[in-house]
Structures are given as C-alpha cells and as structure tokens.
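Dear support,

Our group has been running a series of protein-ligand predictions, and this particular one with S-adenosylmethionine is the one our PI (initials K.S.) wants archived with full inputs and outputs. We had some confusion internally about which version of the output was final, so please treat the block below as the authoritative record. The input we submitted was:
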Amino acid sequence: MREQNFLSKRPLLYLLATPIGNLEDASPRFIKTLNEVDLVACEDTRVTGKLLSYFSIKKPLISLREHNEVSASEHIVKEILEGKKVAYVSDAGYPCISDPGAKLVEIALKNQINVTCIPGPNAALSALIASGLDCSHFYFHGFLSAKDKERKEELIDLSHREETLIFYEAPHRIKKTLLDMLDVLGNRKACIARELTKLHEEYIRATLSEMVELDEESLKGEMVIVVEGTYDELSPSIDDDELIKMVNSYQQSGLSTKDAIKKVSELTSINKNYIYKIYHLN
Ligand code: SAM
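Confirmed final output from the archive:
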C-alpha cells in the first residue's frame, strides 16, 4: 500500500524526537507540530509537561509507558480514528529507541493510520559521529542486561561483529560494563559520550583498558559507550565447525579443553569466549 503522508486523507500519527538535554535542540517544526496537535501522548506526563511549558504550549497529555503500552496504544489509535491529531514523544530522543512507542506504531499501522517522524536529537547517533570511530557501519545494541551472566553472553555474541558497537549505559553499572567489555571484546578503542548537549558534555576517547582505570566518581550522568568493531581478518573464512575441529585436534594432541581453546583463539585471533561458547553448545 503506497500513500504519501502529507498528501493523503488518511489519519497521521506524529512521532517526535525530543531534546536529550539541551532544550534549544528543539526544532521549529517540533514546536509547530506540538502547537498543532489536539493531544500529546508521552512516556511521563511530568517530563513532557515541563517540556511543553518551556515552549508555552498547553495540550492534554496522556501517558503511554512500557507497562501500559498495548492498552494506551489502543486508546490513542481510537482517538486518532475519531479525528484527533496526536503526537507521541518519549522522555528524551527518539521514541522506540530504548524507549516505548514501537507498539503504538504497530497498532496504528494495523488500523490504516499513517506514521511520520519529526526528526531530532538521539543519543546514539550523536555519540557515534563525534566518537572518532568508524561510522560507515555500526550496530546499535542499546542497554546490555543488568545481570552479570547475561551481559557477558550478549558481549560474547557481539564480539565477532565488525561494525562499530553502540551501547547505552547507566552510571551505576558503567565500571562493571567496561570491565566485561575489556574481558570479552579485548582492548579495543572506545568512546564514552557523557551528558551530551548539556553543560558537562564530555567525550572520553581511549582504549577499554584505559577506561577501566577511570575514577567511577567522574563517570556520572547519562552516557553512551561506542566501541570499535573487531578487525580480525581471519574470522570470516573460519566457520564454527572448523573452529570446533581445531579445538578437538589440539585436545587429541594432549591439551586441556581450556588450553586448546586458548591456542585456537591465539591462532585465529577469534575471541576465546566466543570459541568457548560455540564449543560447549555443540
Ligand atoms: N530514546 C533515547 C534516544 O533516542 O537516544 C534513548 C532513551 S534511553 C531510555 C536513555 C539512555 O540514552 C541513557 O541511559 C543514556 O545511555 C542515553 N542518553 C540519553 N541522553 C543522553 C545524553 N544527553 N548524553 C549521553 N547519553 C544519553
């Protein structure tokens, strides 16, 4: 089904990116759209209330958060179908990016409502482009698991990716996450982009081994971690079966499983945690 958003008679849902710290990042189109809608659906009505009052905009607010995403989305879709012009904003940056909104988009589209985005600030892309790391290909992961074992497993799965990796992280977990990254990904170049667009904005460009030495007290606020991808040239030509065969053959020659995995890792430059994982899955 093809239909142009602004030339169609179909109803339209507006997804708006909100400032990630500096309110002056709100565009004229962002302000114009908020002035024109009948209803603003948002993650937290207090946060959005403050944002709107900064721009002297008064609109009815309705909350759509993770815990009520489906029921609130259905309600909002009903309002749009009844003729209301509705915008959705999350607390900061793009809705749907480590924030609610995806369910609303899905339900709106199912109900023949067009969806548009009023572009603006986003923490991940802002961090990436100023990080100094390769921007040609990147992988956005968002938040790693808060659980130690799951976080390590997620990193092991990512250790093979050649694209630059982008993570969101909270200050109380930053030290643990950096230590796990160093352990699993090896000593790669990285960038912590902290407090973007705010007075204390800082880009820390260093290796992971330098980053784990940083004083935790100095790593406060909101932050994005950008890590370079693996540049291992051998890995694409060695598949998992081949790696397992190599481990088996070192074992047969007398090495323990641990030493055989270490040897294969040294030989292929493939992360030992990754080899350990595929070896034990088979
Ligand atoms: N939807 C947002 C976006 O488009 O960027 C992300 C929301 S997510 C719940 C919040 C996380 O984004 C924070 O924990 C932090 O990792 C990152 N973040 C948000 N604002 C930031 C800022 N001003 N500076 C650095 N990171 C920020």
